[in-house]
C-alpha cells in the first residue's frame, strides 16, 4: 500500500511545483502561513500580492471546504516576504494524508524557514472561552495512533530522517514570542496555551469522545494542523501554531449546544483583526529569518 500512497508526491514532484511557483514571482518567502477555517483574512494582510488559485498550481489539491478560499498568496508583511495558504486540506476531504501535507514540502523548497499554522478548534479545557486564542504547545495525533501518519511510507532523506523527533514540534521561542506580543497588544485575557488533539472528522465529536479527550489531556480539538506540523518538522521548518477556540466542546448530556461550521466561521470573523495583528507583529519580530 505504501508505494502507491506516496506516488505523485515525490521530491521531484514537490521540486517541480516549487520551481513553477518561483518562476512566477520574485518573492522569496521565509515565512509561510496556513489559514484555518474562517481565518483566510490573514492572507489579505499581505502587500504586493501575487496570488495563485490552487487549481492552477501543478500537483496542488483543491480546497473543498466552505471558509477555505483555495489560493496561495505571496506578498510582503511589513516588508517581510511571506507566502500564505488561504485554505488548507483535511483528511475528511478524501485526500491521502501525503497530499494534504504536500504544501509543507513545497514551502521548504521555496525557502520557507518558519510556518505559522492556524486553525479553528473546539475548546475542551473548562477554563477556555469562545474567542480565546490558544498557543499550541503540543499535540495528540489520533489518526497517527491508528497508523495514518503523513510520514508513513518510504522515507526520502532529502526531506528528513526516518524517525523525526516530535518532543520539540512546536518551537518554544516562538511560543514565548507569541505570549510577549499578545501581552503587548493587550490580549492577555484571551491568550491561552494548550494541547491540540486532531481527529479525522468530518463529524464533530460525541459527548463521550469529548470527555475522553479531556481525560487524555487535550485542551482543544480539531481536524487539521498536526499533519502539517509533522511534515514541516520532518524537513526542518520551525513551527508555530495557534487555535482560535470557536466553540466549546459539549461534555454535558443536558446541554443544548450543537457544534456547527457556521458558528466556527462566525467566530473567526469576530477575532480576525486581533489574529492578524498578533501574526503580523510576530512576523516582524522573527528577525533572523530575513537575513
Ligand atoms: O482546522 P481548520 O482548517 O481551521 O478547520 C476546522 O473547522 C472545521 C470544522 O468547523 C474543521 O475542518 C476543523 O478542522
TrEMBL record:
GO terms for cellular component: cytoplasm. It catalyses: inosine + phosphate = alpha-D-ribose 1-phosphate + hypoxanthine; guanosine + phosphate = alpha-D-ribose 1-phosphate + guanine; 2'-deoxyguanosine + phosphate = 2-deoxy-alpha-D-ribose 1-phosphate + guanine; 2'-deoxyinosine + phosphate = 2-deoxy-alpha-D-ribose 1-phosphate + hypoxanthine. NCBIfam families: PNPH, PNPH-PUNA-XAPA, PRK08202.1. Residues 31-283 form the Nucleoside phosphorylase domain. Pathway: Purine metabolism; purine nucleoside salvage. A purine D-ribonucleoside binds at residues 205, 247. PANTHER family: METHYLTHIOADENOSINE/PURINE NUCLEOSIDE PHOSPHORYLASE (PTHR11904), PURINE NUCLEOSIDE PHOSPHORYLASE (PTHR11904:SF12). Its EC number is 2.4.2.1. One of its GO terms (molecular function) is purine-nucleoside phosphorylase activity. InterPro entries: Nucleoside_phosphorylase_d (IPR000845), Nucleoside_phosphorylase_sf (IPR035994), Pur_Nuc_Pase_Ino/Guo-sp (IPR011270), Purine_phosphorylase (IPR011268). Belongs to the PNP/MTAP phosphorylase family. It holds the Pfam family PNP_UDP_1. This is Purine nucleoside phosphorylase. Catalyzes the phosphorolytic breakdown of the N-glycosidic bond in the beta-(deoxy)ribonucleoside molecules, with the formation of the corresponding free purine bases and pentose-1-phosphate. Preferentially acts on 6-oxopurine nucleosides including inosine and guanosine. The purine nucleoside phosphorylases catalyze the phosphorolytic breakdown of the N-glycosidic bond in the beta-(deoxy)ribonucleoside molecules, with the formation of the corresponding free purine bases and pentose-1-phosphate. Transmembrane segments: none annotated. SUPFAM superfamilies: Purine and uridine phosphorylases. Gene3D superfamilies: Nucleoside phosphorylase domain.
Amino acid at each position: 500500500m505504501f508505494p502507491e500512497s506516496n506516488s505523485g508526491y515525490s521530491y521531484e514532484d514537490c521540486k517541480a511545483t516549487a520551481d513553477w511557483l518561483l518562476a512566477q514571482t520574485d518573492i522569496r518567502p521565509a515565512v509561510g502561513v496556513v489559514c484555518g477555517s474562517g481565518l483566510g483574512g490573514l492572507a489579505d494582510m499581505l502587500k504586493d500580492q501575487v496570488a495563485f488559485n490552487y487549481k492552477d498550481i501543478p500537483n496542488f489539491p483543491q480546497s473543498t471546504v466552505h471558509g477555505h478560499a483555495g489560493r496561495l498568496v505571496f506578498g510582503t508583511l511589513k516588508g517581510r516576504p511571506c507566502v500564505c495558504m488561504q485554505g488548507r486540506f483535511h483528511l475528511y476531504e478524501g485526500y491521502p494524508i501525503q497530499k494534504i501535507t504536500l504544501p509543507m514540502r513545497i514551502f521548504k523548497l521555496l525557502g520557507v524557514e518558519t510556518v505559522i499554522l492556524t486553525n479553528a478548534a473546539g475548546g475542551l479545557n473548562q477554563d477556555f472561552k469562545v474567542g480565546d486564542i490558544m498557543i499550541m504547545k503540543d499535540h495528540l495525533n489520533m489518526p497517527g495512533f491508528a497508523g495514518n501518519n503523513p510520514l508513513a511510507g518510504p522515507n526520502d532523506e532529502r526531506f528528513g530522517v526516518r524517525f523525526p523527533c516530535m518532543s520539540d514540534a512546536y518551537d518554544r521561542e516562538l511560543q514565548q514570542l507569541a505570549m510577549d506580543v499578545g501581552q503587548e497588544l493587550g490580549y492577555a485575557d484571551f491568550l491561552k496555551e494548550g494541547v491540540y488533539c486532531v481527529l479525522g472528522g468530518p463529524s464533530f465529536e460525541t459527548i463521550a469522545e469529548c470527555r475522553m479527550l479531556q481525560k487524555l489531556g487535550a485542551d482543544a480539538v480539531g481536524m487539521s494542523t498536526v499533519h502539517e506540523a509533522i511534515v514541516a518538522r520532518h524537513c526542518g521548518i520551525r513551527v508555530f501554531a495557534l487555535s482560535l477556540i470557536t466553540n466549546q466542546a459539549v461534555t454535558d448530556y443536558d446541554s443544548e449546544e450543537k457544534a456547527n461550521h457556521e458558528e466556527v466561521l462566525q467566530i473567526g470573523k469576530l477575532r480576525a483583526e486581533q489574529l492578524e495583528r498578533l501574526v503580523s507583529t510576530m512576523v516582524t519580530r522573527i528577525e533572523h529569518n530575513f537575513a
